[in-house]
Automatic annotation (TrEMBL):
<keyword id="KW-0732">Signal</keyword>
<dbReference type="Pfam" id="PF13505">
    <property type="entry name" value="OMP_b-brl"/>
</dbReference>
<feature type="signal peptide">
    <location>
        <begin position="1"/>
        <end position="19"/>
    </location>
</feature>
<dbReference type="InterPro" id="IPR027385">
    <property type="entry name" value="Beta-barrel_OMP"/>
</dbReference>
<dbReference type="InterPro" id="IPR011250">
    <property type="entry name" value="OMP/PagP_B-barrel"/>
</dbReference>
<feature type="domain" description="Outer membrane protein beta-barrel">
    <location>
        <begin position="9"/>
        <end position="215"/>
    </location>
</feature>
<protein>
    <submittedName>
        <fullName>Porin family protein</fullName>
    </submittedName>
</protein>
Length: 216
């Protein structure tokens, strides 16, 4: 955690060093992408954990539109997708019987409404906190006993979601901004298939690089 914080601060100083005059930020549109790291049971690979999601590090992409009502307070909406592959190594070692193969990944789309609290260090550089709530739309991975086996059946589930995080943004010329963000998103969908019900924590920590455009 200390190492991540140090890197975050170094990047902040780097961005601020070449920031231009900038404009007072009001409306903005941002594209974010980066690493998504499973948290808790979702990232557990243990065959002895009945709640293990067996998810490994993946990626996410998100688009966010927002508006600042003052220099410090704003609202935004985010739509994103997230993908995590399965690691079945420990399960296959522990389970007697046919070997299991993952034919698809954990798939999540999410829609969040956010509250933004911003501290403008300068006209071109700011630090912000973000809290959000909304929905996730999730698809259960398909697992078969043959390497090429596939099924047409997709098991999906929606769930409430919430999250929080923060980031930095540097506005450069032509209203374009670059930034870094860390955001933790939490959701627990209930999947139902053939009278079997499975509740799965799908919490993840998203590390993002972003590019944004600000509006007057």
């Amino acid at each position: 955690m200390k190492r991540n914080l140090l890197l975050f601060c170094l990047c902040a100083l780097s961005l601020n060093s070449w920031a231009g005059e900038g404009l007072s930020e009001k409306g903005f549109f941002a594209i974010r992408t980066g690493l998504s790291v499973p948290q808790g049971d979702f990232g557990s690979l243990s065959a002895n954990n009945q709640n293990a999601g067996l998810a490994v590090k993946g990626f996410h992409v998100a688009a966010e539109y927002g508006n600042f009502l003052s220099d410090y307070f704003g609202l935004s909406g985010t739509f994103g997708i997230r993908r995590h592959a399965l690691d079945l190594y420990e399960v296959n070692r522990a389970v007697m019987g046919p070997k299991l193969y993952a034919q698809s990944k954990w798939r999540t789309s999410y829609l969040l409404g956010n509250l933004l609290l911003k501290y403008p260090v300068s006209q071109a550089f700011s630090v912000y906190l973000k809290g959000g709530a909304g929905l996730t739309f999730n698809t259960l991975p398909q697992v078969t006993t043959t390497p090429s086996g596939q099924t047409d059946q997709k098991v999906t589930a929606e769930a409430l979601a919430y999250g929080w995080g923060g980031g930095i943004k540097s506005i450069v010329e032509n209203r374009v901004g670059f930034g870094l963000e860390i955001f933790s998103i939490h959701s627990k969908p209930t999947f139902k298939n053939n009278n079997v019900t499975v509740k799965q924590d799908m919490n993840a920590l998203n590390y993002s690089l972003s590019i944004s455009y600000q509006f007057n």
